Amino acid sequence: MTINPQDHAYPDIYKLMIGAIVPRPIAFVSSLSPDGIRNLAPFSFFTGISANPPVICFCPMIRLSDGARKDTIRNIEATGEFVVNVVLESFAPQMNVCATEFPPEVDEFEKSGLTPIHSDLVKPPRVKESLVNMECRLFQIVNVSSKPLGGSIVLGEILLFHVWEELFDNFKIDPDRLKPIGRMGGPTFTRTTDRFDMLRVREADLKK
Questions:
Q1: Alpha-carbon distance 66 to 68, whole Å?
Q2: pLDDT mean values, one per 10 residues, the chain (208 residues)
Q3: Where are the chain's structural domains?
Q4: How far apart are CA 137 and CA 43, in angstroms?
Q5: Is the four-CA dihedral 86, 89, 93, 94 of positive or negative sign?
Q6: Helix, strand, or coil here: 91?
Q7: pTM across the whole model
Q8: Which architecture, in CATH terms, is 5-191?
Q9: What gap in Å lies between CA 186 and CA 192, rounded to an integer?
């Protein structure tokens, strides 16, 4: 089957993308409004961009329900700061609460019951229940589309990592202790317990 996006409705193309681009890690982003209202929201279009300097990106989309931009990107535009918290299996239901389209004046920390703790270099709080937090300063925003389900790329430079000590061994993270989750299509999520290793192949090792 060959699908031309121009021949189909964009909600169907969105469903196709989130079903095919899997599994996706989840950026659980905490931010502050200019008035100091805390915001916490998950984004599954998320990845690393650079290690020198350390830069990550996530992609908030224009809401389908009302065509509005999300509180997270408006907060980051105004303040230039945010925190990315890694989502663990242990608080997946609370994360899901934060995916609700609350009004801007609602504090998702309070709604979800998750615990805000002070960051060291930025004003938005970290999520205490997360075992890896990344304090970020806005690097750049690339606005791709202002249409419904259009999106922007938010790039942030990581100023500081917070990693639970028992996860950390010579800059490697123990996935069995971390227990992160990922996003599939629709309401489906995935655990990362079924894994396999493959060493990088060198050209000299390949048979002629």
A1: 5
A2: 94 94 97 97 98 98 91 98 98 98 96 98 98 98 96 98 96 96 96 92 80
A3: 5-191
A4: 17
A5: negative
A6: helix
A7: 0.94
A8: Roll (2.30)
A9: 18
